[in-house]
Specification:
With about 190 residues, the chain is of the alpha/beta class. Helices cover about 35% and strands about 25% of the residues. The protein has one domain (about 5-190): Rossmann fold (3-Layer(aba) Sandwich), CATH 3.40.50. The strands form two sheets. Strands 2-1-3-4-8-7 form a six-stranded mixed sheet, with helices on both faces. Strands 5-6 form a two-stranded antiparallel ribbon.
Length: about 190
């Protein structure tokens, strides 16, 4: 593939409360190990998304969200429009909640949960009282309440994003991929040993 995969991220310094931005580093590394170049670019609601292949919204504090939305009122609507064109959006935790709010979808509050969970074979850390699906696929988009670099712990999920968008042949394996996949397997097992 000669095309560079361009990964856009909203406010990476503010929406990285649990290391969520590392999801893009994992995605970029897995592309590189398959011979595909990529670039991570910061975007705002006014950015031109036409040359982007994916958008990412991480998790942020209430204070961060208040400030960001006061200064860039359209970035969530821009992300939702991008998703509705069929291009992939990844939204994590409060980023996911903001997308649902924009879509006027109901968000209930339940018992606060703080634990590792396995959702459809995807392992991640949940720390929320929002009663919404923990993992939701909408077309090529992924919305999740699971914190942190979920793609590091779930390489198959990352490869689904890569193959689903035609960016690389994920059947290609090599030493780097084998090593990180082994680490992910151990990490997934360790999450439930306590």
């Amino acid at each position: 593939m000669s095309k560079k995969v361009r990964l856009g991220t909203f406010y990476p310094k503010d929406l990285d409360l649990n290391g969520d931005q590392a999801n893009l580093l994992v995605l970029a590394a897995r592309l590189k190990w398959r011979g595909v170049s990529s670039e991570i670019v910061s975007v705002t609601g006014d950015s031109d998304f036409s040359n982007l292949d994916l958008l990412f919204i991480g998790h942020g504090s209430l204070a961060a969200w208040g400030s960001l939305l006061a200064n860039d009122r359209k970035f969530i609507s821009s992300a939702v429009e991008f998703m509705q064109t069929g291009k992939p959006l990844i939204a994590v935790s409060s980023g996911y909640i903001k997308v649902l709010e924009h879509l006027s979808e109901p968000i209930q509050t339940g018992e606060h949960r703080s634990e590792f969970v396995d959702v459809e074979g995807v392992v991640g850390y949940l720390n929320s009282s929002a009663d919404v699906p923990l993992l939701q696929r909408r077309g090529s988009s992924l919305l999740t309440m699971l914190h942190g670099p979920i793609l590091a712990k779930n390489p198959d999920l990352c490869d689904q994003i890569i193959s689903g968008n035609g960016w690389a042949d994920v059947s290609l394996k090599n030493k780097q991929l084998d090593e990180v996949d082994s680490l992910a397997k151990v990490s997934r097992k360790t999450a439930f040993e306590n």
